[in-house]
Amino acid sequence: xxxxxxxxxxxxxxxxxxxxxxxxxxxxxxxxxxxxxxxxxxxxxxxxxxxxxxxxxxxxxxxxxxxxxxxxxxxxxxxxxxxxxxxxxxxxxxxxxxxxxxxxxxxxxxxxxxxxxxxxxxxxxxxxxxxxxxxxxxxxxxxxxxxxxxxxxxxxxxxxxxxxxxxxxxxxxxxxxxxxxxxxxxxxxxxxxxxxxxxxxxxxxxxxxxxxxxxxxxxxxxxxxxxxxxxxxxxxxxxxxxxxxxxxxxxxxxxxxxxxxxxxxxxxxxxxxxxxxxxxxxxxxxxxxxxxxxxxxxxxxxxxxxxxxxxxxxxxxxxxxxxxxxxxxxxxxxxxxxxxxxxxxxxxxxxxxxxxxxxxxxxxxxxxxxxxxxxxxxxxxxxxxxxxxxxxxxxxxxxxxxxxxxxxx
Length: 409
Description:
The protein is α+β, with helices and mostly antiparallel strands.
């Protein structure tokens, strides 16, 4: 039988200790609530925003050396000899060639620059389907190049377009070329830079406008089904380096989406620092309150400590008694904190009750990632740290003398 644990279960506080226990319990509950909320919201932001940037450009890109992913001057061939080898990597879900062409669109007296992104009928359009707000997806499967395009709601509002309207686009090179397109649908991914500039079109139009062959591409997008971006990028780099340089493959460089949007991903990295600060502060608050509560219990139970010592209980066991008592308070507080946090997160996950300004945060509601593994790690770590802090007040027990403490009451 574990006597310290048995006595801890039977111990009841009263007066000041009861109030301090309640305060300590509430403090732990609030701290756990704040930590679970911080990690869930941070991961929610990171996943939602990363999903949008990755969905538009892929996670890894093969581009001409020294050029951007949207270049229209130096094509790389889509039929690289090692494409199948890259596609066979465990974490790779698709490898797709795209072509870009800058142009201008006009509607009455409104004129605006735009980047036309050309894709083929095999391109994975699931990201755009999820972001589709009006109309339908364009069909690029015909024998002839399709004149259908997909533009953003923001661009449509700026230019006064709606679904079904015809769009006149001008492309400036050695001469000016004009093309007529039809808007089949509108998407909304809430990325200002992408929403206001990019138009999804048939890749055959873009290749002709650039004067490229049927395999000419601005870049090749690699999308992943799992694994870490940097590790897969390194594997792709090794595959490219191992190729025979005498083969007639286009020279390519490997870059990740983090390098395409450095400011965005740096901002997301700062969220981790903010979460760490919240966690540290909450553990400090909970720890200090638990120390205070445990000290009050010790002072009120001085006679009990003296009695137990006089009956032969060792300092170690008496310390365990009060540590068990403190652990009970911590666990009760953690249960309450987790329950309240789970309720708030689930409500937000399914109702999107709390809104945001998409102009500033890229999303129109607070995203939530209810990750049980992260929550478990937070709880276990917090419990261990708070329990370690509670050892400090328990050391006071060794200074209590049985003969003096029995005369306190």
